[in-house]
């Protein structure tokens, strides 16, 4: 039997990147999935990829919605329960390093950018989780939050608001993990490193620049020791592991780093010691 057979999953931010790969994987592995994002055309591409994988049409619920709005969150949940009758798995994946409207980075980023960034990467997760808890309590379900290695403890000076939001999300994961396990709900999170998705474009990078950024990073061992750029499917497999109670039942409040080794490198490792010492 497929590992998610009989399970119902909501995957936010599934109109692109990591969420799309997770939606395709979950659906192929038997789940009934709600896919969602703001862009109808990109969401339809996800739906078509799922159908192309041989998944029956009735196993997909497609919801065009802004996850930062109350109405969007309500629609995502109510349409899922109306169509599939329950909820087993919530993947809080929608997120972005929203660019500053003036193009500023670092401490020069505006307070409006702070509000928008925390609204998407933190507040919407808290709001949707709160609304999903009664449904997940009924099924003793799973939550997987998508954080980032940008959350710390190393600094990310260029995009402070994004990394602050992800750092707070990590603490939210730990807090909710303990609070909700008493109801049988498991909460865990993934911290991806660099993954080739629409993330760069959402930051305002032109497509070509984004591609160059990813390939250059992957070619530098001090940036990605694995020597290859992470793919959305790499993260999707990790999400599936944490959402699969059979595979990970005793893992609670864990932050699973999936980054090709990026976060293990210290500045001093970037130097060639043989040259420095002689
Ligand atoms: P993408 O830009 O490819 O995908 C982001 C998804 O989030 C899209 O489906 C987008 O849909 C959705 N989204 C953004 N804003 C909203 C909104 N207001 N309402 C509803 N949906 C929204 O990026 P990734 O796949 O890379 O990002 C997925 C997660 O992974 C994010 O949380 C990101 O922070 C995290 N991450 C990514 C890394 C990377 O290198 N790629 C590294 C570390 C973490 P739409 O535009 O249609 O609304």
From TrEMBL:
InterPro entries reported in the protein's UniProt record: NAD(P)-bd_dom_sf, Sc_DH/Rdtase_CS, SDR_fam
Q: Which CDD domains match?
A: SDR_c11 (cd05364)
Gene3D superfamilies recorded? NAD(P)-binding Rossmann-like Domain
Alphabetized, the UniProt keywords read: Oxidoreductase
Concerning PROSITE patterns, the annotation shows:
ADH_SHORT
A GO term for molecular function: oxidoreductase activity
Report which superkingdom the organism of origin falls in. Answer: Eukaryota
Q: What is this protein called?
A: NAD(P)-binding protein
Native species of this protein? Caenorhabditis tropicalis
């Amino acid at each position: 039997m497929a590992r998610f057979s009989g399970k119902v999953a909501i995957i936010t931010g599934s109109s692109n990147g990591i969420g799309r790969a997770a939606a395709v994987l979950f659906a192929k592995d038997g789940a009934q999935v709600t896919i969602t994002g703001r862009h109808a055309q990109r969401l339809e591409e996800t739906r078509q990829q799922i159908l192309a994988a041989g998944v029956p049409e009735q196993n997909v619920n497609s919801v065009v919605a802004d996850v930062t709005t109350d109405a969007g969150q309500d629609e995502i949940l109510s349409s899922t329960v109306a169509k599939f009758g329950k909820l087993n798995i919530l993947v809080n994946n929608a997120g972005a390093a929203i660019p500053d409207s003036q193009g500023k980075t670092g401490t020069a980023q505006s307070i409006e950018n702070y509000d928008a960034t925390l609204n998407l990467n933190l507040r919407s997760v808290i709001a949707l989780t709160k609304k999903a808890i009664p449904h997940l309590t009924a099924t003793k379900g799973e939550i997987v939050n998508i954080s980032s290695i940008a959350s710390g403890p190393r600094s990310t000076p260029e995009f402070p608001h994004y990394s602050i939001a992800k750092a707070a999300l990590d603490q939210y994961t730990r807090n909710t993990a303990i609070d909700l396990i008493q109801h049988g709900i498991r909460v865990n999170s993934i911290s991806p490193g660099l993954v080739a998705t629409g993330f760069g474009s959402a930051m305002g990078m032109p497509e070509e620049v984004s591609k160059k950024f990813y390939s250059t990073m992957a070619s530098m061992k001090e940036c990605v020791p694995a020597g290859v750029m992470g793919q959305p499917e790499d993260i999707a497999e990790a999400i599936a592991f944490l959402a699969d109670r059979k595979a990970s039942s005793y893992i609670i409040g864990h932050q699973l780093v999936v980054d090709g080794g990026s976060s293990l490198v210290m500045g001093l490792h970037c130097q060639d010691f043989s040259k420095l010492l002689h």
